[in-house]
Amino acid sequence: MNQDNQNIYRTTPARTGKMMVIMLGICIVGGAIFFSMWDYWTSAPAPVVAQMAGESEHDLQPGVATGKHMEVSLKFVESSDFRTLAFNALPGEEGHNPVINANVGDEIVFNVENAGKSFHAFGVTADAEGFAGIVPSSAINSASNPLKPGMTGTSEFIPSKEGTYYYICTVPGHREQGMVGEIIVGAAQAGEAPKAAAAPTGVHHDFNVDFVESSDFRTLAFNALPGEEGHNPEFRVNSGDEVTFSTVNKGKSFHAFGIVSDPENFNNVLWNSAIAAATNPLKPGQDGSVTFTAGAPGTYYYICTVPGHALQGMQGSFIVE
To answer: Where are the bilayer-spanning segments (predicted)?
Structure first.
């Protein structure tokens, strides 16, 4: 009588124990990595992700500049035990979290320095709590790409409505530890109505802005990445001046160019200032140029008009005086 013989594989208790020790070690190391990055996992989603998800706490549109310009200098500071955070000075010291008073349409330019030993980021919000709802033009870096100690940044905020706004550190938890100050905005002053476009002045400007990207494609910019010299330069012209922008796509993605009044609205390109378009963008290595006449005085933005790219960093200020 024939019987089928089958091989039966077994392991020893010692081998099983070693395998369990290895699996336990993997779990411990993975858990340590996960919880060491807890601030990152719980931070706000990237602006482009929030926009695609339809997330909107409020509708803060950039105001129209009235001609009044304010420069505000702020420094991130920390107590020696890192439990108390603030701007300019710690609680009880002169200059602690200064209140900024402005009117609708005033251009507030923030010059921010990380004078601490931790990582920080900056922005203006109308929300009384948390770190969401940041006005895009006011942001300096982000929780996922913060200012390192000693780094600086510049941004601007033009309030479009009366009320109380807040400048904060946008790294989760830092506002709650004290990095928050008020911006009190009053009504626009008499005689500060937006001005009409001037007649052609005969003055011509040539500007160059090239599309660049970080190696992981998460950060986009013009000319240089954040923290590098030449990053998203500000341009100032007079109403009626003729302006030529030239650009080269030095990245590996597709890009397009235009001047807009709202960096979140990439469909509203002004003054026939477009170079290519989201539907027909510049491919890697391609270049283009455009010439137009600057319109009414105000603060505008040059951006990449491919959806989401301005929110990832491809935006700079274009000031018409």
So the answer is: 21-41
3-class secondary structure for 240-299? CCEEEEEEEECCCCCECEEEECCCCCCCCCCCCCCECECCECECCCCEEEEEEECCCCEE
Contact 183, 102 (CB under 8 A): yes
Domain shared by 224 and 313, yes or no: yes
Q: How far apart are CA 264 and CA 279, in angstroms?
A: 17
Total domain count, the chain: 2
The half-sphere exposure of 220 on its side-chain side, counting CA atoms within 13 A, is 29
85 touches 121 (CB < 8 A): no
pLDDT digits (tens, 9 = 90+) for 90-109: 999 999 999 999 988 888 98
Whether the model clears a pTM of 0.70, i.e. scores above it, the answer is: no
Max mean pLDDT among 27-36, 37-46, 63-72, 249-258 falls in 249-258
Rounded to whole angstroms, what are the CA distances from 185 to 62, 102, 269? 14, 5, 29
